[in-house]
Amino acid sequence: MEQFYQVLAWAGVFFYWLMIAAVTMRIVFKRRVVGVSLAWLMIIYIIPIGGVIAYLLFGELNLGKKRAQRAKVMFEPFADWFQRLNDCPGHQPELMSEHARPLSDLCENRLGIPALSGNSLSLQDSPQTILRSLIEDIHQAEASIHMEFYIWHPGGLADEVATALVMAAKRGVQVRILLDAAGSMRFFRSHWPKLMRHSGIEIVEALAVTPFRMFLRRMDLRQHRKIVVIDEKIGYTGSMNLVDPAYFKTDAGVGQWIDVMVRVTGPSVAVLNGIQAWDWEVETGNRFLPQLPECSLPSQAEASDMIQVIPSGPGMPDEIIHQALLLSIYQAKESVVITTPYFVPSENLLHAMKGAAHRGVTVDIIIPDKNDSIMVEWASRSFFSELLAAGVRIHRFHGGLLHTKSVVIDSTHCLIGTVNLDMRSLWLNFEVTLAVDNPEFTKQLNWLQKEYMSDSSLVDRSKWEERHISNKLIEQFFYMFSPLL
Description:
It is built from 18 helices and 17 strands.
Protein backbone atom coordinates (compact mmCIF):
# COMPACT_ATOMS: atom_id res chain seq x y z
CA MET A 1 0.00 0.00 0.00
CA GLU A 2 2.84 2.37 0.84
CA GLN A 3 4.33 1.71 -2.58
CA PHE A 4 0.96 2.53 -4.18
CA TYR A 5 0.84 5.91 -2.41
CA GLN A 6 4.38 6.66 -3.51
CA VAL A 7 3.48 5.93 -7.13
CA LEU A 8 0.33 8.07 -6.75
CA ALA A 9 2.38 10.93 -5.29
CA TRP A 10 4.94 10.77 -8.11
CA ALA A 11 2.13 10.60 -10.68
CA GLY A 12 0.55 13.69 -9.10
CA VAL A 13 3.86 15.55 -9.23
CA PHE A 14 4.36 14.53 -12.85
CA PHE A 15 0.90 15.64 -13.95
CA TYR A 16 1.28 18.93 -12.03
CA TRP A 17 4.61 19.54 -13.77
CA LEU A 18 3.01 18.63 -17.10
CA MET A 19 0.17 21.09 -16.47
CA ILE A 20 2.58 23.88 -15.52
CA ALA A 21 4.75 23.15 -18.56
CA ALA A 22 1.74 23.16 -20.90
CA VAL A 23 0.41 26.50 -19.58
CA THR A 24 3.94 27.98 -19.67
CA MET A 25 4.32 26.99 -23.32
CA ARG A 26 0.90 28.45 -24.11
CA ILE A 27 1.84 31.77 -22.48
CA VAL A 28 5.18 31.89 -24.33
CA PHE A 29 3.70 31.09 -27.74
CA LYS A 30 0.97 33.73 -27.36
CA ARG A 31 3.74 36.35 -27.85
CA ARG A 32 2.02 39.07 -25.87
CA VAL A 33 3.65 42.01 -24.10
CA VAL A 34 6.61 40.62 -22.14
CA GLY A 35 5.40 42.18 -18.87
CA VAL A 36 2.01 40.47 -19.20
CA SER A 37 3.61 37.10 -19.88
CA LEU A 38 6.01 37.44 -16.94
CA ALA A 39 3.22 38.46 -14.57
CA TRP A 40 1.17 35.39 -15.48
CA LEU A 41 4.20 33.09 -15.21
CA MET A 42 4.88 34.48 -11.74
CA ILE A 43 1.27 33.80 -10.70
CA ILE A 44 1.20 30.19 -11.92
CA TYR A 45 4.55 29.43 -10.26
CA ILE A 46 3.76 31.12 -6.93
CA ILE A 47 0.16 29.89 -6.54
CA PRO A 48 -0.06 26.10 -7.02
CA ILE A 49 -3.07 24.95 -9.08
CA GLY A 50 -4.89 28.25 -8.38
CA GLY A 51 -2.53 30.15 -10.68
CA VAL A 52 -3.25 27.75 -13.56
CA ILE A 53 -7.01 28.01 -12.97
CA ALA A 54 -6.76 31.81 -12.84
CA TYR A 55 -4.92 31.84 -16.16
CA LEU A 56 -7.45 29.54 -17.83
CA LEU A 57 -10.29 31.82 -16.63
CA PHE A 58 -8.74 35.28 -17.09
CA GLY A 59 -5.48 34.89 -19.00
CA GLU A 60 -6.70 35.01 -22.57
CA LEU A 61 -9.10 37.19 -24.55
CA ASN A 62 -11.96 34.72 -24.93
CA LEU A 63 -15.17 36.41 -26.04
CA GLY A 64 -17.11 33.15 -26.13
CA LYS A 65 -17.89 30.88 -29.07
CA LYS A 66 -21.29 32.39 -29.92
CA ARG A 67 -20.10 36.01 -29.88
CA ALA A 68 -16.95 35.12 -31.82
CA GLN A 69 -19.04 33.45 -34.53
CA ARG A 70 -21.35 36.47 -34.74
CA ALA A 71 -18.42 38.86 -35.00
CA LYS A 72 -16.95 36.80 -37.84
CA VAL A 73 -20.21 36.95 -39.81
CA MET A 74 -20.64 40.66 -39.04
CA PHE A 75 -17.23 41.79 -40.17
CA GLU A 76 -17.88 42.05 -43.92
CA PRO A 77 -21.19 44.00 -43.85
CA PHE A 78 -19.96 46.40 -41.16
CA ALA A 79 -16.61 46.88 -42.95
CA ASP A 80 -18.55 47.73 -46.12
CA TRP A 81 -20.76 50.17 -44.18
CA PHE A 82 -17.76 51.97 -42.68
CA GLN A 83 -16.01 51.98 -46.08
CA ARG A 84 -18.97 53.81 -47.63
CA LEU A 85 -18.33 56.70 -45.24
CA ASN A 86 -15.40 57.62 -47.50
CA ASP A 87 -17.96 58.86 -50.05
CA CYS A 88 -19.35 61.37 -47.54
CA PRO A 89 -18.41 64.96 -48.52
CA GLY A 90 -17.39 65.41 -44.88
CA HIS A 91 -14.39 63.17 -45.55
CA GLN A 92 -11.79 65.86 -46.25
CA PRO A 93 -8.36 64.44 -45.32
CA GLU A 94 -6.54 67.25 -47.12
CA LEU A 95 -7.95 69.75 -44.59
CA MET A 96 -6.60 67.95 -41.53
CA SER A 97 -3.90 69.43 -39.33
CA GLU A 98 -0.41 67.95 -39.15
CA HIS A 99 -1.38 66.25 -35.87
CA ALA A 100 -4.62 64.73 -37.13
CA ARG A 101 -3.54 63.37 -40.52
CA PRO A 102 -1.18 60.59 -39.28
CA LEU A 103 -3.78 59.50 -36.71
CA SER A 104 -6.47 59.45 -39.38
CA ASP A 105 -4.25 57.43 -41.70
CA LEU A 106 -3.62 54.90 -38.92
CA CYS A 107 -7.32 54.48 -38.15
CA GLU A 108 -8.41 54.43 -41.77
CA ASN A 109 -5.85 51.76 -42.68
CA ARG A 110 -6.46 49.58 -39.62
CA LEU A 111 -10.12 50.21 -38.77
CA GLY A 112 -11.48 51.29 -42.13
CA ILE A 113 -13.18 54.25 -40.41
CA PRO A 114 -12.47 57.70 -41.90
CA ALA A 115 -12.36 60.98 -40.02
CA LEU A 116 -15.34 63.20 -40.85
CA SER A 117 -15.76 66.97 -40.72
CA GLY A 118 -18.90 69.08 -40.48
CA ASN A 119 -19.59 68.21 -36.86
CA SER A 120 -20.66 70.41 -33.97
CA LEU A 121 -19.21 69.60 -30.54
CA SER A 122 -20.20 70.68 -27.06
CA LEU A 123 -18.06 69.86 -24.02
CA GLN A 124 -20.25 69.18 -20.98
CA ASP A 125 -18.20 69.21 -17.81
CA SER A 126 -20.57 68.62 -14.89
CA PRO A 127 -22.92 65.70 -14.09
CA GLN A 128 -25.91 68.01 -13.74
CA THR A 129 -25.24 69.64 -17.12
CA ILE A 130 -24.73 66.26 -18.78
CA LEU A 131 -27.83 64.58 -17.36
CA ARG A 132 -30.09 67.63 -17.84
CA SER A 133 -28.96 67.93 -21.45
CA LEU A 134 -29.56 64.22 -22.01
CA ILE A 135 -33.04 64.41 -20.45
CA GLU A 136 -33.96 67.39 -22.64
CA ASP A 137 -32.80 65.59 -25.81
CA ILE A 138 -34.74 62.46 -24.82
CA HIS A 139 -37.89 64.55 -24.38
CA GLN A 140 -37.38 65.93 -27.92
CA ALA A 141 -36.73 62.49 -29.48
CA GLU A 142 -39.08 61.55 -32.32
CA ALA A 143 -37.92 58.21 -33.73
CA SER A 144 -35.13 56.36 -31.88
CA ILE A 145 -32.87 56.34 -28.83
CA HIS A 146 -29.90 53.97 -28.65
CA MET A 147 -27.87 53.83 -25.42
CA GLU A 148 -25.05 51.75 -24.01
CA PHE A 149 -23.23 52.19 -20.71
CA TYR A 150 -20.93 50.28 -18.42
CA ILE A 151 -22.73 51.44 -15.26
CA TRP A 152 -26.32 52.51 -14.75
CA HIS A 153 -26.88 53.21 -11.07
CA PRO A 154 -30.40 54.11 -9.90
CA GLY A 155 -30.99 57.31 -7.93
CA GLY A 156 -31.25 61.06 -8.42
CA LEU A 157 -31.05 62.40 -11.96
CA ALA A 158 -30.39 58.89 -13.32
CA ASP A 159 -33.99 58.06 -12.37
CA GLU A 160 -35.17 61.15 -14.24
CA VAL A 161 -33.37 59.84 -17.34
CA ALA A 162 -35.15 56.50 -16.90
CA THR A 163 -38.50 58.26 -16.54
CA ALA A 164 -37.84 60.30 -19.69
CA LEU A 165 -37.05 57.09 -21.60
CA VAL A 166 -40.29 55.44 -20.43
CA MET A 167 -42.25 58.49 -21.56
CA ALA A 168 -40.45 58.45 -24.93
CA ALA A 169 -41.24 54.76 -25.46
CA LYS A 170 -44.92 55.36 -24.63
CA ARG A 171 -45.18 58.03 -27.32
CA GLY A 172 -43.78 55.61 -29.91
CA VAL A 173 -40.01 56.25 -29.83
CA GLN A 174 -38.02 53.05 -30.36
CA VAL A 175 -35.61 52.70 -27.40
CA ARG A 176 -32.76 50.18 -27.17
CA ILE A 177 -30.47 50.02 -24.11
CA LEU A 178 -27.33 47.85 -23.78
CA LEU A 179 -25.79 47.72 -20.30
CA ASP A 180 -22.83 45.80 -18.97
CA ALA A 181 -24.15 43.07 -16.68
CA ALA A 182 -21.46 43.48 -14.02
CA GLY A 183 -21.23 47.27 -13.99
CA SER A 184 -25.03 47.72 -13.96
CA MET A 185 -25.84 44.95 -11.50
CA ARG A 186 -27.63 47.33 -9.10
CA PHE A 187 -29.80 48.60 -11.96
CA PHE A 188 -30.85 45.11 -13.05
CA ARG A 189 -31.84 44.32 -9.46
CA SER A 190 -34.02 47.43 -9.26
CA HIS A 191 -37.61 47.91 -10.45
CA TRP A 192 -36.52 49.85 -13.53
CA PRO A 193 -35.87 47.00 -16.03
CA LYS A 194 -39.35 45.53 -15.53
CA LEU A 195 -40.97 48.97 -15.82
CA MET A 196 -38.99 49.84 -18.95
CA ARG A 197 -39.68 46.54 -20.68
CA HIS A 198 -43.36 46.91 -19.87
CA SER A 199 -43.32 50.27 -21.68
CA GLY A 200 -41.75 48.71 -24.78
CA ILE A 201 -38.06 49.48 -24.18
CA GLU A 202 -35.56 46.79 -25.23
CA ILE A 203 -32.95 46.26 -22.50
CA VAL A 204 -30.08 43.80 -22.91
CA GLU A 205 -27.45 42.66 -20.41
CA ALA A 206 -24.05 42.62 -22.09
CA LEU A 207 -21.60 39.90 -21.08
CA ALA A 208 -23.80 38.31 -18.43
CA VAL A 209 -22.01 37.09 -15.30
CA THR A 210 -22.95 33.59 -14.13
CA PRO A 211 -20.89 30.73 -12.60
CA PHE A 212 -21.55 28.55 -15.66
CA ARG A 213 -20.35 31.12 -18.18
CA MET A 214 -16.95 31.43 -16.49
CA PHE A 215 -15.91 28.24 -18.27
CA LEU A 216 -17.07 29.54 -21.66
CA ARG A 217 -15.50 33.02 -21.84
CA ARG A 218 -13.35 35.47 -19.95
CA MET A 219 -15.45 36.91 -17.12
CA ASP A 220 -13.56 40.17 -16.55
CA LEU A 221 -14.03 41.25 -20.16
CA ARG A 222 -16.42 44.22 -19.88
CA GLN A 223 -18.49 46.50 -22.12
CA HIS A 224 -16.97 49.83 -21.06
CA ARG A 225 -18.31 52.10 -23.82
CA LYS A 226 -20.64 55.03 -23.12
CA ILE A 227 -22.69 55.96 -26.19
CA VAL A 228 -26.05 57.67 -26.68
CA VAL A 229 -27.53 58.28 -30.14
CA ILE A 230 -30.88 60.10 -30.44
CA ASP A 231 -32.82 60.17 -33.74
CA GLU A 232 -29.51 59.35 -35.48
CA LYS A 233 -28.75 63.10 -35.22
CA ILE A 234 -27.42 63.68 -31.71
CA GLY A 235 -24.65 61.67 -30.09
CA TYR A 236 -23.03 61.58 -26.66
CA THR A 237 -19.86 59.87 -25.53
CA GLY A 238 -17.22 60.42 -22.87
CA SER A 239 -16.23 59.21 -19.44
CA MET A 240 -19.52 59.44 -17.54
CA ASN A 241 -21.64 56.43 -16.73
CA LEU A 242 -25.37 56.88 -16.30
CA VAL A 243 -25.13 57.79 -12.63
CA ASP A 244 -25.88 60.76 -10.43
CA PRO A 245 -22.61 61.21 -8.45
CA ALA A 246 -24.60 62.37 -5.40
CA TYR A 247 -26.07 58.82 -5.21
CA PHE A 248 -23.14 56.76 -6.50
CA LYS A 249 -20.48 55.13 -4.27
CA THR A 250 -21.02 57.77 -1.62
CA ASP A 251 -19.39 55.59 1.05
CA ALA A 252 -16.19 54.92 -0.94
CA GLY A 253 -14.31 57.80 0.70
CA VAL A 254 -13.12 59.28 -2.61
CA GLY A 255 -15.64 62.10 -3.05
CA GLN A 256 -18.02 62.54 -5.97
CA TRP A 257 -16.96 61.35 -9.42
CA ILE A 258 -15.86 64.08 -11.84
CA ASP A 259 -16.70 63.43 -15.50
CA VAL A 260 -17.17 64.94 -18.94
CA MET A 261 -19.25 64.05 -21.97
CA VAL A 262 -19.13 65.35 -25.53
CA ARG A 263 -22.42 66.14 -27.28
CA VAL A 264 -21.99 65.74 -31.03
CA THR A 265 -24.14 66.56 -34.03
CA GLY A 266 -23.09 65.91 -37.62
CA PRO A 267 -21.88 62.93 -39.66
CA SER A 268 -19.77 61.40 -36.85
CA VAL A 269 -23.00 60.59 -34.98
CA ALA A 270 -23.60 57.87 -37.59
CA VAL A 271 -20.22 56.32 -36.72
CA LEU A 272 -21.14 56.19 -33.03
CA ASN A 273 -24.46 54.66 -34.05
CA GLY A 274 -22.61 52.07 -36.14
CA ILE A 275 -20.45 51.07 -33.18
CA GLN A 276 -23.53 50.77 -30.97
CA ALA A 277 -25.17 48.61 -33.66
CA TRP A 278 -22.05 46.40 -33.73
CA ASP A 279 -22.21 45.89 -29.96
CA TRP A 280 -25.95 45.17 -30.10
CA GLU A 281 -25.50 42.48 -32.75
CA VAL A 282 -22.54 40.87 -30.97
CA GLU A 283 -24.72 40.50 -27.88
CA THR A 284 -28.12 39.71 -29.41
CA GLY A 285 -27.52 38.48 -32.96
CA ASN A 286 -29.96 41.11 -34.28
CA ARG A 287 -28.71 43.47 -37.00
CA PHE A 288 -29.67 47.13 -37.13
CA LEU A 289 -27.21 48.73 -39.53
CA PRO A 290 -27.89 52.48 -39.28
CA GLN A 291 -28.50 54.86 -42.13
CA LEU A 292 -25.41 56.46 -43.61
CA PRO A 293 -25.10 60.15 -42.67
CA GLU A 294 -26.62 62.77 -44.93
CA CYS A 295 -23.43 64.66 -45.65
CA SER A 296 -23.07 67.98 -47.38
CA LEU A 297 -19.86 69.70 -48.35
CA PRO A 298 -18.71 71.43 -45.14
CA SER A 299 -18.01 75.13 -45.04
CA GLN A 300 -14.51 76.37 -44.23
CA ALA A 301 -15.50 76.80 -40.57
CA GLU A 302 -17.17 73.38 -40.37
CA ALA A 303 -14.18 71.68 -42.00
CA SER A 304 -12.19 72.30 -38.83
CA ASP A 305 -14.68 70.23 -36.76
CA MET A 306 -12.97 66.96 -37.69
CA ILE A 307 -13.63 63.84 -35.58
CA GLN A 308 -11.95 60.46 -35.85
CA VAL A 309 -13.99 57.86 -33.96
CA ILE A 310 -11.76 55.07 -32.60
CA PRO A 311 -13.47 51.95 -31.25
CA SER A 312 -11.17 49.46 -29.53
CA GLY A 313 -11.45 46.10 -27.86
CA PRO A 314 -12.61 42.65 -29.02
CA GLY A 315 -13.48 42.60 -32.71
CA MET A 316 -11.29 45.63 -33.42
CA PRO A 317 -7.64 45.58 -34.58
CA ASP A 318 -5.20 44.72 -31.81
CA GLU A 319 -3.61 47.65 -29.98
CA ILE A 320 -5.40 50.30 -32.06
CA ILE A 321 -6.01 52.71 -29.16
CA HIS A 322 -2.55 51.97 -27.77
CA GLN A 323 -1.03 52.90 -31.13
CA ALA A 324 -3.17 56.05 -31.35
CA LEU A 325 -2.02 57.21 -27.91
CA LEU A 326 1.63 56.52 -28.68
CA LEU A 327 1.42 58.31 -32.02
CA SER A 328 -0.20 61.36 -30.40
CA ILE A 329 2.44 61.63 -27.66
CA TYR A 330 5.34 61.13 -30.07
CA GLN A 331 3.96 63.94 -32.28
CA ALA A 332 3.86 66.42 -29.38
CA LYS A 333 6.15 69.44 -29.77
CA GLU A 334 5.16 71.66 -26.84
CA SER A 335 2.84 70.00 -24.33
CA VAL A 336 0.98 66.84 -23.34
CA VAL A 337 -1.75 66.96 -20.67
CA ILE A 338 -3.34 63.68 -19.56
CA THR A 339 -6.23 63.09 -17.17
CA THR A 340 -7.07 59.54 -16.11
CA PRO A 341 -8.58 57.95 -13.00
CA TYR A 342 -6.53 54.76 -13.32
CA PHE A 343 -2.89 55.19 -14.26
CA VAL A 344 -1.07 51.93 -14.95
CA PRO A 345 0.68 52.63 -18.28
CA SER A 346 2.23 50.08 -20.58
CA GLU A 347 6.01 50.07 -20.90
CA ASN A 348 5.74 51.73 -24.30
CA LEU A 349 3.49 54.51 -23.01
CA LEU A 350 5.82 55.05 -20.08
CA HIS A 351 8.77 55.45 -22.46
CA ALA A 352 6.73 57.76 -24.71
CA MET A 353 5.89 60.11 -21.82
CA LYS A 354 9.46 60.08 -20.52
CA GLY A 355 10.80 60.61 -24.03
CA ALA A 356 8.52 63.60 -24.56
CA ALA A 357 9.72 65.16 -21.30
CA HIS A 358 13.36 64.47 -22.21
CA ARG A 359 13.02 66.35 -25.49
CA GLY A 360 11.60 69.41 -23.74
CA VAL A 361 7.87 68.80 -24.07
CA THR A 362 5.89 69.80 -20.97
CA VAL A 363 4.12 66.64 -19.77
CA ASP A 364 1.40 66.90 -17.11
CA ILE A 365 -0.49 63.91 -15.69
CA ILE A 366 -3.57 64.58 -13.54
CA ILE A 367 -4.88 61.68 -11.43
CA PRO A 368 -7.17 61.46 -8.39
CA ASP A 369 -5.56 61.89 -4.99
CA LYS A 370 -7.79 59.07 -3.69
CA ASN A 371 -8.76 56.08 -5.79
CA ASP A 372 -11.55 53.54 -5.43
CA SER A 373 -9.15 50.74 -6.43
CA ILE A 374 -6.42 50.09 -3.84
CA MET A 375 -4.42 47.85 -6.18
CA VAL A 376 -4.42 50.44 -8.95
CA GLU A 377 -3.54 53.20 -6.48
CA TRP A 378 -0.40 51.37 -5.31
CA ALA A 379 0.55 50.25 -8.80
CA SER A 380 0.22 53.85 -10.07
CA ARG A 381 2.61 55.12 -7.40
CA SER A 382 5.26 52.64 -8.55
CA PHE A 383 5.69 54.71 -11.75
CA PHE A 384 6.06 58.11 -10.05
CA SER A 385 9.82 58.07 -9.37
CA GLU A 386 10.69 57.20 -12.95
CA LEU A 387 8.39 59.85 -14.40
CA LEU A 388 9.42 62.56 -11.95
CA ALA A 389 13.08 61.90 -12.71
CA ALA A 390 12.35 62.47 -16.41
CA GLY A 391 10.69 65.80 -15.67
CA VAL A 392 7.04 64.73 -15.94
CA ARG A 393 4.74 66.70 -13.63
CA ILE A 394 2.23 64.64 -11.65
CA HIS A 395 -0.83 66.38 -10.18
CA ARG A 396 -3.02 64.72 -7.53
CA PHE A 397 -6.59 66.02 -7.81
CA HIS A 398 -8.43 66.73 -4.53
CA GLY A 399 -11.92 67.62 -5.80
CA GLY A 400 -13.24 64.05 -5.96
CA LEU A 401 -12.53 60.98 -8.04
CA LEU A 402 -11.37 62.51 -11.31
CA HIS A 403 -12.90 60.12 -13.85
CA THR A 404 -12.29 62.20 -17.00
CA LYS A 405 -10.20 60.41 -19.64
CA SER A 406 -8.53 62.95 -21.90
CA VAL A 407 -5.27 63.73 -23.69
CA VAL A 408 -4.49 67.20 -25.10
CA ILE A 409 -1.53 67.58 -27.43
CA ASP A 410 0.04 71.03 -27.99
CA SER A 411 -3.33 72.65 -27.07
CA THR A 412 -4.53 71.98 -30.65
CA HIS A 413 -5.54 68.33 -30.86
CA CYS A 414 -7.17 66.02 -28.31
CA LEU A 415 -8.36 62.52 -27.48
CA ILE A 416 -11.40 62.10 -25.26
CA GLY A 417 -13.55 59.09 -24.46
CA THR A 418 -13.82 56.02 -22.26
CA VAL A 419 -10.22 54.75 -22.22
CA ASN A 420 -8.26 54.71 -18.97
CA LEU A 421 -4.47 54.60 -19.05
CA ASP A 422 -4.38 51.05 -17.74
CA MET A 423 -3.95 47.64 -19.28
CA ARG A 424 -7.63 46.71 -19.06
CA SER A 425 -8.71 49.65 -21.23
CA LEU A 426 -5.77 49.38 -23.59
CA TRP A 427 -5.90 45.64 -24.22
CA LEU A 428 -9.15 44.13 -22.98
CA ASN A 429 -12.42 46.07 -22.66
CA PHE A 430 -14.79 47.44 -25.31
CA GLU A 431 -13.92 51.16 -25.49
CA VAL A 432 -14.44 54.20 -27.72
CA THR A 433 -12.39 57.37 -28.16
CA LEU A 434 -12.86 60.57 -30.15
CA ALA A 435 -9.78 62.12 -31.72
CA VAL A 436 -10.83 65.74 -32.24
CA ASP A 437 -9.08 68.05 -34.67
CA ASN A 438 -10.72 71.29 -33.58
CA PRO A 439 -8.60 74.03 -31.93
CA GLU A 440 -11.57 75.74 -30.22
CA PHE A 441 -12.93 72.54 -28.66
CA THR A 442 -9.42 71.49 -27.65
CA LYS A 443 -8.85 74.84 -25.92
CA GLN A 444 -12.05 74.31 -23.91
CA LEU A 445 -10.85 70.87 -22.82
CA ASN A 446 -7.42 72.29 -22.02
CA TRP A 447 -8.99 75.02 -19.85
CA LEU A 448 -10.92 72.34 -17.99
CA GLN A 449 -7.70 70.39 -17.44
CA LYS A 450 -6.10 73.55 -16.02
CA GLU A 451 -9.04 73.87 -13.61
CA TYR A 452 -8.34 70.31 -12.48
CA MET A 453 -4.69 71.24 -11.96
CA SER A 454 -5.64 74.28 -9.87
CA ASP A 455 -7.49 71.90 -7.51
CA SER A 456 -4.53 69.54 -7.33
CA SER A 457 -1.23 69.26 -5.50
CA LEU A 458 1.96 68.79 -7.47
CA VAL A 459 4.03 65.77 -6.44
CA ASP A 460 7.41 67.04 -5.23
CA ARG A 461 10.21 64.73 -6.35
CA SER A 462 12.46 65.22 -3.31
CA LYS A 463 9.61 64.65 -0.84
CA TRP A 464 8.38 61.67 -2.82
CA GLU A 465 11.75 59.95 -2.54
CA GLU A 466 11.59 60.34 1.25
CA ARG A 467 8.45 58.20 1.61
CA HIS A 468 8.65 55.24 3.99
CA ILE A 469 10.40 52.06 2.86
CA SER A 470 7.22 50.05 3.51
CA ASN A 471 5.39 52.15 0.92
CA LYS A 472 8.12 51.45 -1.62
CA LEU A 473 7.86 47.71 -0.99
CA ILE A 474 4.08 47.71 -1.42
CA GLU A 475 4.40 49.75 -4.61
CA GLN A 476 6.91 47.30 -6.07
CA PHE A 477 4.73 44.35 -5.11
CA PHE A 478 1.76 45.73 -7.03
CA TYR A 479 4.06 46.89 -9.85
CA MET A 480 4.77 43.22 -10.57
CA PHE A 481 1.07 42.72 -11.27
CA SER A 482 0.54 46.03 -13.11
CA PRO A 483 0.40 44.40 -16.58
CA LEU A 484 -2.75 42.58 -15.43
CA LEU A 485 -4.58 45.51 -13.79
